[in-house]
Structure formats: C-alpha cells, structure tokens
Amino acid sequence: MVQATLSREAAPSPASNVDTTVETFRFMLLARVLDEKMANLYRAGKIHGGVFLGRGQEALSASLGVSLRKGDVFAPLVRDTAGRLAFGEPILDCVRTYLGSVLGPMRGRDGNVHRGRPSAGILPMISHLGAMISVVNGALFAKRAAGVQDAVGATCLGDGGMSTGAFHEALNQAAVERLPLVLVVANNQYAYSTPNRHQFACTSLLDRARGYGVAGQAVDGTDLTACLNALRSAVVAARAGQGPQLVVASLLRLCGHGEHDDASYITPEIKKSAVGRDCIAVAEAQLLQADLATRPALAGLRAECVAAVEQAVATVQREPAPDPFAEQWQALSAAHLLDTTQES
Amino acid sequence: MSITYLEAIREAQARALAEDPRVFIYGEDVGQFGGAFKATKNLAAEFPGRVKDAPISEDAIVGFAVGAAIEGMRPIVEMQFADFSTVAINQIVNQAGTLFWRTQTPCPIVVRMPCGGTSGSGPFHSQNMEAIYSHYPGLVVVTPATVEDAYSMLIEAVALNDPVIFCEHKLLYYHLKAEKLPTEALPIGKARIAREGRDMTIVTYSAMIHEALAAADELEPEGWRVEVVDLRSVKPLDTDTVMASVARTGRLLCVGESWPWGGVTAEVIARVTSEGFALLDAPPQRLNSKDTPVPYHPSLWAAHRPTGHSIAAAARRVLRQ
C-alpha cells in the first residue's frame, strides 16, 4: 500500500545519506501534495476554519522528522506537515483533523494543525507560540527520570515565536537542565505580515543560542542537503548528551499565513532573493545532479503521493462528523468532579 | 504535639513523594532552601533529585510540569506566590486545562498557590486566584480552610488525574494548628458544615471560614444562630450542600476574600437564586474585598477584606430583612 511505504513505521532505516536524501524528499513532496489538497478543499468550502501550509519549509521540516526516531518527542508547529509525516504521523490524521472526522485524533474537538498523539510522542500544539518548548522540556525530564538516556525532544518555532516570553523562559530552562532539546526555527522572514525588521533587532537570531549557553547553527532552509546535515548533526549532538541545540534556518514562506491570506505584503525583491527559492525545486535539482533520481522517477513519485492523498481524502469524506448529542462534554478525566449546574 | 497548616502541606508532599515515585516538586527556591515559606523544608535532602529548583520562569515551570505529566509523572508545582501565576496562566488554562478534552491524555499536575492577603504584603503578594481558574474548563480548584483539609486535599489532589489548582492561604500557614494529621477526610468536591445554625447561612471558603466563624460567635449573644458552610473546593462547587443549608435557614450571605466582580460568591448566589429561589426568605447578599488592588498598610488591608466584624454587620442586614 502506497501509504504504508510512505509512513515512517514502514520506512527502512537509512543505510546511507543517499537513501536518506531520497526518503526525505519523498516526505517533502508528500507534504506539498497533501497541503495543496487541503488548500483546494478549503477553496471549495469543504473545511471549517483555516488551512495553514508549509510551502517553502518542507526541506527543513522533513529533515527534522527523518532525523528523529521512535521514542523521541516531537511538538511540531504550524508548517510542519512534512516533519509530521517523516516522524510517522499518518496522512489520515491530517485529513481527519482538517475535515473534522470523529475518527481522527482530535475528533472534531480541535482542528487543522492542532493535532497530535501524545502517546506516540507527537504533542498537539496550542496556538500560543513558544508554549510547546517547555512542555517538551518536561517530557524529556520525565524520560531522563525514567532512565531513558537517549531520547531527543524536538519542537519548531518561527522568527515571530522567538519574540515570546515562553521561548526565552523555555530555552533557558532547557539549558539549565541540559536537556536533549532540538529547537528548530524557521526564519521565514515574516510573522504573519510583520517583517523581520519589526520583529527583532539583533544581527542574527542565532545570537540567542550563545545568550543562553546552547549550541546553535544556521542553515539555508531552501537546501535539502544542508538541512539534512544540520538537523542530523543537531539531533545526534542532543542524543549524545551535548545539551540543547538551536537550528535557525533562513527561508521564505511561499504562501500566506493561512489560505485566507494573499500575502501581498511579501515583496517581489525577497521572493527573487536566495531565501525565495522553492526547496522542492532545489531538492529535485540536487537529486538529478547527484544521479539519485531521474525525471520519470520524480514524476512517478509525485503521482504516488497524489494517489495516497486522494485515497485518504476519499476515505475521510465518507466518515462521520462529531455528533453534539453523543459528545461527552467533559473536560476532566474524573467524571465525579465535573461541575454541574442546572444549565448543564 | 500540634501541627500547623503549613506543616501539613509539607507532610502531604513528603508522603506523596514517599509513596509514589512518579511525584516530583518543581518551583522557585523549593530545593535546598526549602521554599519561600518552607513548605518543602528538607524534602530535597530526603528525596534527592525530586525536589527541583526552577529558574524564575513561571510559564516554563508549568509547561515543564505538563510535559512531565504527559510522560506519566505527577508533578507538584509551587508557585512562590499565587500572584505570580498570572505569568503562567497560558500554560495552566490553555495547555493543562485543554489537554484531556483535546487528546484524552490525562494531565495530573498540582499547582500549589500560596494565596491571600497577609498584613504588609501589598498588591502583588496577596491575591486570590480561585475565581480566575474556576472560570476555565478542565481544572479542579480547591481552597482548604483547615489543617486537616490542607493535608488530605493535597494528598487527594496529587492522586487525581486532572490538573488541580491548590489554593493554600498564607494567613493560615503558621497560626492555624491541629492536634494531629487526619486519617480520614471528606473527598474533594464535597462542602462541609463548619458550624450548624438555623437563622441564616454564610457560604465561604479558605481563610474567610475563620472570619465567618468569628462573625457567628459575635452574632450568637444577639440570639442569632448562623450556619457556616465551607465550600472546600470551589470547582466543582457542591451546590447540594449549599442548597440544603439554605433550605434550613432561608437566608444566605456569601463571603469571599477576592474581588467582587464575578467570582465564587456571585456563582453561589446565581445558583441558589436560579435553582432554589423559593427557599429564600430574603434577598441573598455578597461580601467580598474592595474593588481595588490589595493595599500594603495594615490599616488599609484590614478594611479591604471582609473581617469577622464586617461579616457580622452584613449578616445582620440579611437577618433583619
């Protein structure tokens, strides 16, 4: 089954950089196709709420996902479809959450990118930026307390999220506890509509690594090979006990903040600059040049991804929506402690 | 031998640490120093590695606890002062409070909040946060008024699979004493009749219980027998016990140390009037603190919050109607 071959569970462990590069590209492409399908469904009025794409960030996100392994903790952010898939999140989880299927992990209680499976190590993001970092820290502390020495926790942020107090508190906390945290920042030049120059005044966001006493590296987020090298080395270093690792990638969001946003504020100059390259096109060129793929093979891969996504959407479109009358309106696990009034 | 409210909180934590390896304590100065109020005195030495000093980062402290809880641990967070929990409110209400409903993953954390006014503490070391946290879904909010409840409710809070906001009143820390720790207790969610009466009901919680009991003493020579209901937990609110009391007395005064707009006293009166209007012989009344920040000077502070005398005065107005 196509879907199985694209999931992390079934993927062979990377025997070499060659295999990893091709495998990572598959997740990038699958994410791009899946995101585009969600955008199409949004435009067709089939999705409640927003749709948020990872367009332009797939190389970075997928490189992180393939660098992690089962037993690690991953708290993805808004534009991490690729990283989620690479970490093992089924396509169905994404589609079910966007379409509000009661069979999805969030069962219609939360939507779009706010999905996860804590028991599988995927923590569901809340909307407040920076808030997941300390949660990953706590999960890593618990693993260490339980005697698990080699688990890594990764989470993602943007240039805007780095302005939150939660980010500063949590990165400092991870440094103090010397936790195996990998914090991946996609500097995509805009936080919604706000350009970098209104977001921070330091020369480089990477300066903040030194400020907190953690390792940091910069990477060209449009370059798959560079991203894979950076993320693999960061995860290896964290796993080896070298403390938190900050990776700051330069790239451009090749879409609006969400599909409701035409992104007219993104200037033509920045689109034409080096950060404006499409990482999928860059990766394809790299694969062809290194003789890791042929054009027909790439076309075949895309067709495979389209088929997998279409199959998932067709499945979910037949699934039931949540039923408000059957819903358990219960925010506590302890049913006897629910507060009841006459109105409830 | 006697034990204070504060010592009971320390003993409850010591017992939780001893009985359950999943429990740990995390907060500012809780380690070797033993906490700003010494609620974790000697625990770091008794339980190495399980009583952790945190950086001054309330948001990250609670986020850390949530992450550890997801992995199966049972963290107890000490907010140095309840007032500082406003810095952590995002993690409390949006992370801890939503986790179970969103994912069916339990979030067994306890956030201890040293709350309430003490003389000379001022606007930022005196606040009562129970109404704020009760407003949000997904949290249990308890407000122990006695040494016994401080102990037994903390033990129970650690055992629950849901986030518990544990509002411990600083004014009770040193002065409130019991002969010994309890061996049995009412569960969280049940209110208690702190004093029986027949003429009116005063519903309150936390340190105001003791002010209400003083008011009841003051009114007794005047011939009034006042019933005092200790809510114990404000969420869930034990409406049944409140209604049963009002059914006996026909008159209701709700007292709280927090600010008047909304809050626990408003909630109790809303429930009694909407569900038990016919039980009332007089309009129910509320008495809260004044609607200003908590003042520093003792003479202002004493007038800012309800006291035995002001509660007795409010009670007389209810009784005369």
Task: Explain how this protein is built.
The complex is a heterodimer of chains A (344) and B (321). Chain A has helices spanning 2-6, 17-43, 58-67, 81-87, 91-99, 131-145, 165-177, 207-212, 224-239, 268-272, 279-289, 295-317, and strands at residues 73-75, 153-158, 181-187, 190-191, 194-195, 215-220, 245-250. With 344 residues, chain A is α/β, with parallel strands linked by helices. Chain A has one domain (2-337): Thiamin diphosphate (ThDP)-binding fold, Pyr/PP domains (Rossmann fold). Chain A has a 5-stranded parallel sheet, with helices on both faces. A two-stranded antiparallel ribbon of chain A has the order 4-5. In chain A, strand 2, helix 7 and strand 3 (181-187) form a beta-alpha-beta unit. A 7-stranded mixed sheet of chain B has the order 3-2-4-5-7-6-12, with helices on both faces. The N and C termini of chain B lie far apart (46 Å). Chain B has 2 domains: 3-178, Thiamin diphosphate (ThDP)-binding fold, Pyr/PP domains (Rossmann fold), CATH 3.40.50; 192-320, 3-Layer(aba) Sandwich (Rossmann fold), CATH 3.40.50. Chain B has 321 residues and is an alpha/beta fold. In chain B, helix 6 links the parallel strand 6 (140-142) and strand 7 (164-169). Chain B has helices at residues 5-19, 43-46, 58-70, 89-103, 130-135, 147-159, 208-219, 239-249, 263-276, 298-304, 308-320, and strands spanning 3-4, 23-27, 51-53, 74-78, 110-115, 140-142, 164-169, 177-178, 192-195, 200-204, 226-230, 233-235, 252-255, 285-287. Chains A and B meet through helix 6 and helix 7 of A and helix 3, helix 4 and helix 9 of B.
Note the gap between the termini of chain A: 46 Å
Q: Number of folding domains of chain B?
A: 2
What are the secondary-structure elements of chain A, in order, as H or E?
A: HHHEHHHEHEEEHEHEHHH
CATH superfamily of the largest domain in chain B: Thiamin diphosphate (ThDP)-binding fold, Pyr/PP domains
What composes the largest sheet of chain B? 7 strands, mixed
Look at the structure and name the CATH superfamily of chain A: Thiamin diphosphate (ThDP)-binding fold, Pyr/PP domains
Beta percentage of chain B is 15-25%
Low-confidence runs of chain A (pLDDT<50, min 5 residues)? 1-15
The first-level CATH class of chain A is given as Alpha Beta
Average of per-residue pLDDT values of chain A? 94
Outline of chain B, from the CA principal axes? Answer: globular
**What is the helical fraction of chain B, as a range of percent?**
25-40%
Oligomer: heterodimer
Give Rg of chain A in angstroms: 20 Å
Q: What is the CATH topology classification name of the largest domain in chain B?
A: Rossmann fold
